[in-house]
């Protein structure tokens, strides 16, 4: 079987991009019989400043959400990255094979580094640690958002360089992209950016734990354009198309179906439909996450 490895940083509360794009997809792979490992990437989260007590609390919250979304510990492995020292060890070995030029050229590094006065080396090395995370377990497939494709290419290149230098040890992993649009949900405030945990505007994302009224409010305030019809044109109408994507993911439908059903509705009316679909999908997950958090995960 395929060995699927994926990580999520405890950098903030999970949003629907993380849920549809990473967690729910993983859960579906687990149900298909893939060999699945999900880890909480606390070492990765240290590339930006973290308050220790808060980080620890977030690790548990995140575990609760992953379980609530359907990860089944009887069938997959769920663990905390820092509990396995080999991630950092292999990272060092790979660091010696990686080049500064390649890492410094990665768009995510450039974007995040540009916003900082002092750039921590960890931010540059982030994709190397990510490569270690996957190679350590002989990962073959990594379900990620489109934002991670280049990082996976670095991991595959490092597996090959390692093989040249020392002999074959690791398969070259591949990014497993979704074909349902779930790998690139956009910010509700600026549809040209991806939805992110670390975006400073809380209205840019819908959290897995948001109650129904907040879901409704955030969708209502989502930035669209001045055309009232509902269409799916991600390039030219990213705002409305993002709502269509969210709707499709919530109801497991295709954009064509959703657009057809929305015929005659204005975007304002359509937003209520999207909010209702999302409320139905998230309510049970939210309830399970609350129960898991209350149980203290013992
Ligand atoms: P941060 O802003 O701290 O980087 P993030 O929202 O990007 O947070 P990560 O923990 O970096 O979340 O990523 C967890 C998983 O969620 C990864 O597989 C990533 O590809 C996926 N993911 C992140 N953002 C989106 C998005 N907007 N749409 C779909 N998938 C996403
Ligand atoms: Mg990210």
Protein topology:
Elements: E1 3-8, H1 16-32, E2 35-40, H2 42-45, H3 52-68, E3 76-80, H4 86-95, H5 100-104, H6 107-114, H7 121-135, E4 141-143, H8 149-166, E5 174-176, H9 212-220, H10 238-251, H11 255-261, H12 267-294
Parallel strand pairs: 1-2, 2-3, 4-5
Helix pairs in contact: 3-12, 4-7, 7-8, 9-12, 10-12
The structure holds adenosine-5'-triphosphate (ATP) and magnesium ion.
Adenosine-5'-triphosphate is lined by residues 6, 8-9, 11, 17-18, 21-22, 144-145, 147-148, 183-185, 194-198.
Describe what this molecule looks like in 3D.
This protein is mostly helical. It folds into two domains: 3-176, HUPs (Rossmann fold); 202-294, Tyrosyl-Transfer RNA Synthetase, CATH 1.10.240.10. Helices cover 51% and strands 8% of the residues. It contains twelve helices and five strands. It has helices at 16-32, 42-45, 52-68, 86-95, 100-104, 107-114, 121-135, 149-166, 212-220, 238-251, 255-261, 267-294, and strands at 3-8, 35-40, 76-80, 141-143, 174-176. A three-stranded parallel sheet has the order 1-2-3, covered by helices on one side. A two-stranded parallel sheet has the order 4-5. Strand 4 (141-143), helix 8 (149-166) and strand 5 form a beta-alpha-beta unit. Helix 4 (86-95) packs across helix 7 (121-135), helix 9 (212-220) runs antiparallel to helix 12 and helix 10 crosses helix 12. The chain is globular, with a radius of gyration of 20 Å. The protein starts with a strand and ends with a helix. The model has no long low-confidence stretch (mean pLDDT 94). The chain binds adenosine-5'-triphosphate and magnesium ion. Adenosine-5'-triphosphate binds at residues 6, 8-9, 11, 17-18, 21-22, 144-145, 147-148, 183-185, 194-198. Its EC number is 6.1.1.2. Residues 181-203 are annotated as: Disordered. One of its GO terms (cellular component) is mitochondrial matrix.
């Amino acid at each position: 079987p395929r060995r699927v490895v994926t990580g999520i940083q405890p950098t903030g509360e999970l949003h629907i991009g993380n849920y549809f794009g990473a967690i729910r997809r993983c859960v579906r792979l687990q149900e298909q019989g893939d060999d699945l490992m999900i880890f909480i990437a606390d070492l990765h989260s240290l590339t930006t400043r973290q308050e220790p007590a808060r980080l620890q609390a977030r690790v548990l919250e995140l575990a609760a959400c992953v379980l609530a979304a359907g990860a089944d510990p009887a069938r997959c492995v769920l663990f905390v990255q820092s509990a396995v020292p080999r991630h950092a060890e292999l990272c060092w070995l790979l660091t010696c094979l990686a080049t500064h030029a390649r890492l410094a050229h990665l768009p995510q590094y450039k974007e995040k580094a540009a916003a900082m006065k002092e750039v921590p080396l960890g931010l540059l090395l982030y994709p190397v640690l990510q490569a270690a995370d996957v190679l350590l377990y002989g990962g073959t497939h990594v379900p990620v958002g489109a934002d991670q494709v280049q990082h996976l290419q670095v991991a595959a290149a490092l597996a090959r360089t390692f093989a040249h230098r020392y002999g074959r040890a690791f398969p070259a992993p591949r990014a497993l992209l979704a074909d349902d649009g779930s790998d690139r949900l956009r910010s509700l405030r600026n549809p040209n950016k991806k939805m992110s945990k670390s975006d400073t505007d809380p209205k840019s994302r819908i959290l897995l734990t948001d109650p129904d009224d907040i879901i409704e409010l955030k969708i209502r305030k989502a930035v669209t354009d001045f055309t009232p019809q509902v269409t799916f044109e991600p390039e030219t109408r990213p705002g409305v198309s993002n709502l269509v994507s969210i709707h499709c993911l919530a109801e497991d439908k295709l954009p064509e179906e959703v657009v057809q059903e929305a015929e005659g509705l204005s975007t304002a009316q359509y937003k209520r439909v999207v909010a209702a679909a999302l409320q139905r999908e998230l309510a049970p997950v939210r309830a399970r996450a609350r129960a898991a958090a209350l149980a203290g995960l013992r």
